[in-house]
Amino acid sequence: MTPPLRRPARPAVLTALASAAFLAQLAVPGAAPGAAAEDCRREVTGEDLPAGRPHPLIDRLGLRQAWDLATGEGVTVAVIDSGVDATHPDLAGAVLDGSQYTVVRTEDEYRRSTPAPDRDCLGHGTAVAGLVAARRSEGDRMAGVAPAARIYPVRVADGVEQATANTLATMIDDAVDAGAGVINLSLATPTDYPPVREAVERAVAADAVVVAATGNEGNEGVSGGRMYPAAYPGVLAVAAVGDDGQPLDTSNAGEWVDLAGYGEALAVPAPGGSGYRTESGTSFAAAQVSGAAALVRSRFPGLSAAEVTERLTASAAPVGGIRNDRTGAGIVDPFGALTHLGGDDGGGPGSGEGDGTGADGPAAGPGAIPVRAVPGPEPLLGPTEATAVAWSGGLLLAVVLGLLAAPAVRRAVRNGRLPATAPGPGTSRRPDTGGPGSHRPATPGTGPPFPRTDWLDGSDVPPPSAARSARTSPTHRNRTR
């Protein structure tokens, strides 16, 4: 029998520990679904969650913006842990029928059965599942990163600490067979066990996103500086940061660390009712990354697991502005992963992209906004418009000049600098010399008949004295009689 694995060390939690409840014995492999589990040696419960405040992770991770794009619908996340209490109100309808493994001292090393819906003695798996896929409640007091995802629980009776390497390898295979798109492994060991490594390789080859915690030893007693399965190729190794975004001292570090999540004093669902408790550590940071992976797989189902992983790391918020051994690429950013504008992510069916190429060159990855070439300068007016504007401008200029010239022409006529033409051809009402009212025949054929400027200065109107003389003349009086 291979040595047992251990879960990352966990700080004390703010919960009460209750006595074990009496349950029936585990069923043997092939037993009917619903076979009950053995008694819990110890069991945790929760307390009421303060009302009126949304869960802090909602703002820290920008989840409301992310939920506008994806909620994890259609994605199954396997939680290989201590079990999941499916009866908790925040997980109602989110948990599928899973598997349960009991370690036995036989050649097979374990027995498999179906867990009871409420079976989670230690509460660790329920907490992880809540951070992944808890349904949104009133006021968002509790919500998972992917609130529409489904949870497939793979339970080890009495906790993952009791599992052997062969048992854990079988559990990973179980999650793959169940069609899990994301597998969460909030557990760690400093030993590289071949069965576990091979099971992880099979999961990666099956296109599952495998997420694992880096552990909480602060690298003390970590042989070779690596923890498994987090350090295996193809696995997203997740460290933890505090509320201030700085790495937790207890979080293991190394060049094999890929991402970080928040891992300090997080409110999580507790089993055995509707309560909550507080947890810390890389286990719960890993749960946030698993939820983010579910969001990406939900929005872009055509992406491969490797492409999902690349999106998560490329869009992370670097701690200190650079990649480092404490937090890897940085703190996971679900909204950033959903809107990442990096290169071609290999879009395929369901990814919202075509074949990755186009008339303007390689297409951007799924979720990216296509960037077109900057258009060259174009004339403001086409040939037709330019001609029309030129003609309009010429006509407008002619009208303006005419209006401006009229007063000058009138003054020139009054001053005698311009001749005033007579109404009829060959005559003129104004001689070259003499004052107004003086008339003499004009020289035939001389003087331009146009322009008619005589009426502009009133020269065609008889002087007042002449008009009165005409009215008082005998001829006029005789005519009026």
Automatic annotation (TrEMBL):
Cited InterPro entries: Peptidase_S8/S53_dom, Peptidase_S8/S53_dom_sf, Peptidase_S8_Asp-AS, Peptidase_S8_His-AS, Peptidase_S8_subtilisin-like, Peptidase_S8_subtilisin-rel
Spans through the membrane: 388-409
Compositional bias per record (Low complexity), positions renumbered to this chain: 360-370
Methyltransferase among keywords: no
Annotated segments matching region Disordered: 335-378, 416-481
Stretches assigned to the Peptidase S8/S53 domain: 72-329
Family according to the record: Belongs to the peptidase S8 family.
UniProt name for this protein: Peptidase S8/S53 domain-containing protein
Lineage: Bacteria, Bacillati, Actinomycetota, Actinomycetes, Kitasatosporales
